[in-house]
Each structure stands twice: as structure tokens, then as C-alpha cells.
Amino acid sequence: MASTAQSIRKRLPGSAGFWFFIAIDALLFILLFASYAYDRLGDAEQFRRARAALHPVPGAIGTVLLLASAWHAVRAVHAAREEGAGVAGVVYSRLVLALLWGAGFLVCMSFQYAGLIGAGAGLTTGGFHMYFFSLTGALLVHLLAGMAALIMIVRRTTDEGLRDGKYLRFIESGAVYWQLVVLLWIAVFALLYVW
Q1: Transmembrane ranges (predicted)?
Q2: How many Å from the N-terminal Cα to the C-terminal Cα in the chain?
Q3: Which of 45, 116, 136, 145 could, after both became Cys, cross-link 121 (CB 3.0–4.6 A)?
Q4: Which fold has domain 56-194?
């Protein structure tokens, strides 16, 4: 057991190819963030007025929910690395909790979208709204992809599945992607709600 734990600590979670995908995906968001910053600095007053119409509560609650979800995903990976009876149940429950917290985030964002759209905001109502809907829309696509990955992992989470050598890489990759989604949301939240 000690040698298995040591070998896990000596490598990145997931696969090298998956980390390349994560890096490219993060780079694309960084370019979007830079574009937002450039445009915001060019028209700070319009961005400030449009941002004032945002209700920060759904975004803040969504942030807490995603952080809780990320914690459960990490705990699922830690549990999957253990051996013994009942491990599959722990992994399964942690992943389901991660999914539920992620679904809660979707509910929060639906309230935010409904409020903005109800007030007449859209992609064409100004630079801030274009970025708001583009950044959060891209993030929501990533969130849904992450939830789909977690659902696939949950379906494979059995005592038999845990013994499959590929399962650990599968759950690690899913959790890494989920952490990326959470980190991206924190950056989006800071740009759109705070700055």
C-alpha cells in the first residue's frame, strides 16, 4: 500500500494529454479575460453602470456552491486511492454531492440570467453584457461538460470499477477538469462582479 501511495504522489493526477487539454483551455479563457480587461479599461463608465445592475447574491452563492462541489470532487479522488470495503460507496457519495452542488450553481445562474434578460440585457446591449453572457455562457458549457464527465464516473463507481487500473486516471482527470471549471468561475466572478 505504501508503494502505491508513493507512486501516486510522484505523478500528476490524470493523464499528460489531459493536462495539455487543460492548459489550452485555460489559455483560451485567459485570452478572453485579457480582451475583457482591455475593453473595460477603454469604457470603464459603461462597464461600471452595467455591472451595477448585476445582483451579486446569485454569483456569490454560486461561488460557495462550486467551492463545496470542488471539495467533494477532491475527496472522491482521495477515497478512490484507498483500498478496502466500502470505498466505492464513499467515492460514489462524494461525486453525487459534487454534482448536486454543481446543479445548485446552475440554479443560481438561471436566476441571474432571468433577471438580466428580464431587464432587457443581452449580447447586443453593450460591451459588459456581451462579455457577461459570453464568459458565463462559455463557463456554463464547461460546467455541463464537467457534470457529464462526473456522471460517467459515477456510473463506473463500483467495487469492480475501482479495481480497474484506468478508473483512477479517469476520476483524477474528471476532478482536475472540475477544478478548472471552479477556478475559471472564480476568475469570471472577480472580473464581472468585483472589478
Answers
A1: 16-37, 57-74, 95-116, 128-154, 175-194
A2: 48
A3: 116
A4: Four Helix Bundle (Hemerythrin (Met), subunit A) (1.20.120)
